[in-house]
Automatic annotation (TrEMBL):
It comes from Idiomarina piscisalsi. This is N-acetyltransferase. Pfam families: Acetyltransf_1 (PF00583). It comes from the Bacteria. Keywords: Transferase.
């Protein structure tokens, strides 16, 4: 990596072997393209198809935002994060804002924001409807954790609906454990489990 290459140029590339329903992850130093009931969607890699589909995880750019806002609206309607929120997130927490691309198409995002000097929270992780069922949520979660560990954070937290069994299972597999249940966390009747893992 050249001395003038910024952290924004880090690209994680995944080759998905669809025939064996497995994936291989490798870290690639390179240049990012110049142009170009938690918020978690989980799926396994599809077994159909013979060709590897390139998957990259990299820091978000302003060019990604319209697509991310579309996915939000598609999945959450009136509760969706707006384009304005994403632009603010890009300005305030650029290193914690990742996107995942499948075959060079934006497929989803994750956002980690600070809580205090040693703790951060996985505020959101989302895979667009048309990209679900390919294991992208798991890949993005792994890279979000890796990115947080490379920062100064010691602990990563998140909140998840108590009835979201699939997400809770995935989080536990990624090393998170439940530390507390908070009633009305996101408003009346919107209880959440707080999960945490060391980095």
């Amino acid at each position: 990596m050249s001395s003038h290459t910024s952290s924004r140029d880090r690209v994680y590339q995944v080759s998905s072997n669809r025939e064996s329903a497995s994936h291989k992850l490798r870290y690639v130093e390179g240049s990012a393209p110049a142009s170009g009931e938690c918020r978690l969607c989980v799926g396994s890699l599809a077994q159909a198809g013979k060709n590897d589909v390139p998957v990259t995880v990299q820091t978000a750019s302003s060019e990604d935002i319209p697509r991310l806002a579309f996915f939000e609206k598609q999945l959450y309607d009136n509760d969706a994060y707006s384009s304005l929120f994403f632009y603010q997130a890009l300005r305030q927490w650029p290193s914690g804002f990742l996107t995942i691309k499948s075959d060079e198409k934006v497929a989803g995002y994750s956002l980690i924001v600070p809580l205090d000097g040693s703790r951060a929270t996985l505020m959101s992780l989302l895979i667009g409807k048309s990209f679900q069922g390919q294991g992208l949520g798991r890949i993005l979660l792994e890279q979000a954790i890796k990115s947080a560990a490379e920062s100064s954070w010691k602990t990563l937290e998140l909140s998840v609906a108590p009835n979201n069994a699939a997400a809770i299972k995935l989080y536990k597999q990624a090393g998170f454990s439940v530390i507390e249940t908070i009633q009305d966390y996101l408003g009346p009747g919107e209880d959440r489990l707080i999960m945490s893992r060391a980095l």
